[in-house]
Each structure stands twice: as structure tokens, then as C-alpha cells.
Amino acid sequence: MSQRTAVDLNKSYLLLNHGPVTLVSSAAGARRNVMAASWAMPLDFDPPKVAVVIDRSTLTRELVEASGEFVLNIPSLRIAETVLRAGSVSGREGDKLAALKITTSPASAVGAPLVEGCLGWLECRVIPEPENQRKYDLFVAEVVAAWADPTVFSNGRWSFQEEGKRTIHYRAGGHFFATGDGFEV
Amino acid sequence: MSQRTAVDLNKSYLLLNHGPVTLVSSAAGARRNVMAASWAMPLDFDPPKVAVVIDRSTLTRELVEASGEFVLNIPSLRIAETVLRAGSVSGREGDKLAALKITTSPASAVGAPLVEGCLGWLECRVIPEPENQRKYDLFVAEVVAAWADPTVFSNGRWSFQEEGKRTIHYRAGGHFFATGDGFEV
Asked: Which residues form the Flavin reductase like domain (chains A, B) (predicted)?
């Protein structure tokens, strides 16, 4: 199981600030899903908010609209292949989590699950903005709980030591960048 | 002067897809400014759109609202210190570009300038969304022209060889990550 400690809500934007790819997990009734999303960013500090694009054709969209909730999971390099597949396969073709052998744990404040193998987790509650959703597939949400693997994120700061245990950034067509060296100016 | 070749509009989202920090440049009348923004992301492919958070307290906000235009410049590691200072100083205290010794070139379709020392440029025209601007400081814009340094971006693909000539990601407090190694799964 992933290691996980609570992140102060006012520091939760730091999980997402450097622009990593995310997995959006969702659940409604007995259905659940996960999809990849690069188009996610912080929107406010306190209370923390995020913005994420969820295409109208996806099962995730249906589950997020039904439940008003999702989790932004921040995957590690180690599960990059799962991220790619989660962005290529539709949950409408069957239980994508089972198909991709994704294991999850329950979240604390939302029904959507936390995806194992990730390094950070933002539990989000949608702030309904029907016009944004309709015109731009854009969802605004408040972060209501946040978690991180304490071996790579503590005191509001990412610190990557191992090759496989770092965040990743999506380019296109199965190509990613690892998050590289940290530096200070 | 930065090398620069046109990027096809339908590939322009690839400049921003991996979540680099940006510089937002703006101009209205005789005034101009530049600020750092990590909270920027693609919003659509074709026509390409972006979303970016521009705080209501900034001079950039005033110039973007007056002109309806801005440029998202994607800086290189080499100018990280300028990015930090552009995010720390207000343009209300005097011409920030002059103070930071930032040189610019004219854009092709908007009045805001292109910042030298960057690797990619997205010329953007605001799609007015007064509610998003007021409630979330969130601007939606259409990308009307895009450019990249052809030594690091061609055929819709970033390819970084030199240490100083790569994109960067902002953490907080003067700390950045370089964009790391590319890999394919």
C-alpha cells in the first residue's frame, strides 16, 4: 500500500504547482473509473481550489457530474504505463481499474477512491459551474482533503531521491518527462 | 535574439502540456508588463485555448482587461532568476521589464510583446468570461499564434539537449524543477 500522510489544506496546491500529470478517479453508485488528465492546475490557495478539464465524452464526466466529487491522484514514474493506458482506454468498455490492475483505497471525504502507486492525492468536491462545464469541459472544485507519500513530500515540499519515485509530466503519444532536478535561484 | 519559428496552431497545446511555468506579458497603450504564472494550462486543441489565473491585484490584470490580449512565454532554465523576480516584484512600482533587463520582440497578432530568453510563445486573445474573471481570477483565451525555438521544439515535440535550454516548473519560494529526462512507455 502507498505510504500516505495528511497534507495541510493550505499547502495542498504545492502538490500540483509544478504541473505533473494526474489521474482523475471517480465513483457514483456502484460504478467507478479513472482517467488521465494533464489539464489540471491549482486555482486558489485558501480554501484551495483546482481547475481540471474533463471531456464530455468520458465516463469520468458522467460519474463526476453524478457524484460532484473526484480525486486528483499524482502518479509516480513507476506507473507511467498505467497512466498512459488510463488515458487511452474508455471506462465504458468495462471496469478500467480492474482491467489495468489498479488498486485503490478509500478516500476520507469523497466517494472516489485513492489510486495506489501515486505520490499525492487531492480529494475534490465540485463547485457547480454549469456554463464552464458545458462550454469548456472545465470543472472547478474545492480541495477538501489532501495526502502525500511522506518519503517524497513533506512540509509542503517535494523532494525526489529515487528514479521511479518522482512525478511525471505528459507530452503526447506515450511520451513523458520525469520531473527533473530541483534548483533554487 | 531568441530563435523562433511558427508552431502550427493545432500543435500549440504541446508547448504547455507538460506544465511548465510561464511568463505572462501584456501591454495596453504605452504600458507593458510581465509576471510569472504557474497556473496556466491548455483548455482545448482546435481552435486552441488556454486557461490562466491572473490575480486581481496585479498590473497584468489591468493591462489584460484593457487590451484583451496577452502572451504566455515559456522561459528557459537560463532565465529562472528573472522568472522568480517577475513573480515577486509588481509592475506598479515602475517598468518591470526595464528593471529586470528583459528584452522583447513584437508579437505577430497581439500587442503584448514576446519575451527574449524563452523557448515557446503563445499569443492569446481573451474570450471574455466576466464571471470566471471575477470569481476565480480565471481567464480563458484563444491562442491566435504560436512560436518556438526550433532547436528545442519541432514537429510538435520538445527535445532538450542542453542543461540551460530546457523548460522549468515552479515549486515555491525560489525553488524550481528542471524538466527532466524524456521517456516513452
From this structure: 14-160
CB distance A169–B49 less than 8 Å?
no
For residue A52, which of A67, A66, A69 has the smallest C-alpha distance? A69
What was the pLDDT predicted at B1?
Answer: 65
Interfacial B residues in 85-104 facing A (CB < 8 Å): none
Q: DSSP letter at B100? A: T
Whole-angstrom Cα distance, residue B37 to residue B122?
14
- Search chain B and give the residue with CA nearest A48: B136
pTM: 0.97
Q: Which residue in B has a C-alpha nearest to residue A81's C-alpha?
A: B185
CB atoms within 10 A of CB A173: 10
| Low-confidence residues in chain A, pLDDT < 70 | 1
Q: Is B143 left (phi over 0), alpha (psi -120 to 50) or beta?
A: beta
Cell of B156: 510538435
Task: Give all domains of chain A, ordered by start, each with its CATH number.
Answer: 5-178 (2.30.110.10)
d(CA A11, CA A29): 31
Contact B41 A39 (CB under 8 A): yes
Residue B138: its H or E element: strand B138-148
- How far CA A26 is from CA of A14, A61, A104, in Å, comes to 22, 9, 11
pLDDT band at B151 (very low <50, low <70, confident <90, very high): very high
ipTM of the complex: 0.96
* CB nearest A18 (choices: B44, B171, B183): B171
* CB-closest option in B49, B132, B182 to A175: B182
Contact B111, B69 (CB under 8 A): yes
